[in-house]
Amino acid sequence: MAKGFRVSGACFSAVCLETEQEEGPRIGFAVPRGLGTAVLRNRMRRRVREAARRRLDQLSARWEIVFQPRRASLRAPFEEIEGEMERLFRRCGG
User: Fold this and answer.
1) Which of 24, 32, 40, 67 has its CA at a distance of 20 to 30 angstroms from the CA of residue 74?
2) pTM of the predicted structure, to 2 decimals
């Protein structure tokens, strides 16, 4: 049986699901068009993806996470995004 939770922060929100399978961790990104042009949406996605990539080894293989970047991720210092990512991964038991 899968169990999950949702986390909200200044730079992104995330939907986390712990599954029985050991194929992961799997990470996805959803950035709605309402957040800006393709250039801005891609920049948000790249910044959050890089923060996740740097800490991915802390995450158990059972987790599936969908990140939803927010506009604040464009202006926030990268260290702030990394800090939110670290808190999220710690909550996932990493």
Assistant:
1) 24
2) 0.89
